[in-house]
Design goal:
It is a single chain. By secondary structure, this protein is an alpha+beta fold. Helices cover about 20% and strands about 35% of the residues. The strands form two sheets. An eight-stranded antiparallel sheet has the order 2-3-4-5-1-6-8-7, with helices on one face. About 40% of the residues are buried.
Length: about 300
């Protein structure tokens, strides 16, 4: 029943001279997704974005950029190199490739070091590890082209481990429905005006994409009891939202630990459960992105039962 929920992620911004990425059409993106050993399940679109729900995570395509996340044992790096080959290195204004440590890294088709070798054959850049190898850590590769990001180019990520409570029990049950999961996570309340596209996997597991104008959210739930993982990502400015989305999700899902990753976004822990911060880092990328990473552990989360000996 084990499934590796931790995602790999690629984000690409193309040059102004490059034609619209949305105009490439669904067959192009189906081919690229296949390179990662995934497939498109469904999609939702508006005037600004095409959001594809994948058999492993998500793909969002705007006119000048795309974002793709894959989990499990997918080979996202091959999708990344395929895109560079198809459009040409000159069309890339900025590319970042990120990878979080996995529960069972030996089951993966490659390591980050392997991925890095493939990427650097196609495009030059810098790479960092944030965090300790024997604990939670995050890898990032990004191109060294003279791109300059806008301060409003925001990303907020919340990665949760070992979820508990009533929500976790429901997400592991055979009584789930997509409507029931939406209600459990309070998606309509937290994210008014978003169009959602979601899917419930067998025997369990849940993914949802949401778009509103140029804004997006994506949530992926791997609820297996011994290796549970839930990710939330968005380009919303959380500081101006009517609800504290991170605090709400932490309260509902009750994780034992969690990571916060932010690009160009203010960092706050108001409303978080009682916790300790086990480590944090800040990196100023040359392109104007301010990257923040923190790993938290909830206080006294695990309830131990005595065993007769």
């Amino acid at each position: 029943m084990f499934f590796e929920g931790s995602e790999k992620k690629i984000e690409v911004i193309v040059t102004p001279a490059t034609p619209s990425l949305r105009a490439l059409g669904r067959p192009f993106w189906e081919g690229m997704v296949a390179k990662a050993h995934a497939e498109i399940l469904s999609s939702v679109s508006n005037d600004f974005c095409d959001a594809y729900l994948l058999s492993e995570s998500s793909l969002f395509v705007w006119d000048n950029r795309f974002l793709m996340l894959t989990c499990g044992t997918t080979t996202l790096v091959h999708a990344a190199t395929h895109f560079v080959e198809q459009l040409g290195e000159a069309a890339i204004a900025f590319l970042s490739y990120q990878r979080k440590n996995e529960y069972l890294s030996h089951l993966q088709a490659s390591s980050f070091a392997d991925d890095l070798q493939l990427l650097r054959k196609k495009i030059s850049g810098k790479a960092f590890r944030i965090g300790h190898l024997d604990s939670h850590h995050h890898y990032i590769f990004y191109t060294d082209k003279p791109y300059q990001a806008e301060a409003s180019d925001i990303t907020n990520e919340l990665l949760m481990y070992h979820i508990g409570g009533d929500a976790a029990e429901y997400l592991r049950s055979d009584k789930q429905t997509t409507a029931g999961v939406r209600a459990t996570l309070a998606l309509e309340e937290m994210l008014p005006g978003f169009s959602f596209d979601d899917f419930l996997f067998e025997p369990f597991g849940y993914s949802v994409n949401g778009i509103r104008g140029r804004e997006y959210i994506t949530i992926h739930v791997t609820p297996q009891e011994n290796s549970s993982y839930v990710s939330f990502e968005t380009n919303l400015d959380l500081a101006v939202q009517p609800l504290d989305i991170f605090a709400r999700l932490l309260g509902v899902l009750d994780p034992g630990s969690w990571d916060v990753i932010r690009f160009n976004a203010p960092h706050a822990t108001f409303g978080f459960p009682a916790h300790i911060c086990l480590g944090s880092a800040n990196i100023a990328l040359e392109h104007g992105y301010q990257l923040h990473f923190s790993h938290y552990q909830q206080l006294c989360h695990e309830k131990l039962l005595p065993e007769a000996i």
